[in-house]
Amino acid sequence: MYDYIKGIFTYKNASTKGYFVTIESNLTGYLYEVTQKDFNLLNEENVEVKMFTVLLHKEDKMSLCGFLKREERDMFSILTSVSGVGSKMALALINSFTVNDLVGFVLDENYKALTTAKGVGQKLAQKIILELKGKLNSSKDIDIPAITTDNSALNGQNIEDARMVLFSLGYENNEITAAIKQAIAILDKNSSAEEILKKSLQILSA
C-alpha cells in the first residue's frame, strides 16, 4: 500500500515496547516503529526525511514500521515472511546486522552469527537460514534480462547469482544492472558471487 512517506520528523519516543518516531506529511502524523539505529540517527526535529514503509495488519490493530534505507525495509519484509519471525525480531535482526551481513550469513549458512541477535536461538536461526536461502534464490525462474559486461574474466555465473539475489531483495532491474556493472569494474577477476553481491549492495546503499 505504501512505498515510502516523505515528511517532517517531529518527535520520537522510546519505551519498553520499542522505538517510535512520528513523521508529519500533509497535516497527518504517522507513527512508525523503527530500529534503534534509525531512532538514534533521527536527532534534529523539523527536518524532512523519507521513511520507507511497511504496513502491518493484524487482527486487533494496524501499525507502521519504517526504515531510512530501502534495502533494510525490503530485508524486513523477507525476514517476516519466515514463519516464527515477527516484526519485533525482524527489527532486532536488522538493528544488529547490515543487509550485507544478513545476506552473507544466509549464503554461508552461518546460523551461529544470527544467534548473537537478541531473542534468536539456534533452532530459529537455522530455520531462518533455510527459508531465506530459498527465498533469495526464488527469482531464478523469473525471466529478466541478463547483464552483459566487457569484463569477461569474471565468472558469468557469479554475476548471475548476485543479480538474482538483488532481484529477490526488491531492486529494479535497471538499478541492479548499474550497480553490478560498477561493482565488477572494481573487483578482482576471481571475485565470488557473494563479493559481487556485497559490493553491489554497498553501491545501491550509497
Folded structure, characterized:
This protein is of the alpha+beta class and 206 residues long. It has 3 domains: 4-67, OB fold (Dihydrolipoamide Acetyltransferase, E2P); 70-136, 5' to 3' exonuclease, C-terminal subdomain (DNA polymerase, domain 1, Orthogonal Bundle), CATH 1.10.150; 141-205. Helices cover 47% and strands 21% of the residues. It contains 9 helices and 5 strands. It has helices spanning 36-41, 70-80, 87-96, 99-108, 111-114, 122-136, 156-168, 173-186, 193-205, and strands spanning 4-15, 18-25, 28-34, 47-57, 62-67. Strands 1-2-3-5-4 form a 5-stranded mixed barrel. β2 and β3 form a beta hairpin. α2 packs across α3 and α4 (99-108) runs antiparallel to α9 (193-205). Residues 139-145 have low confidence and may be disordered.
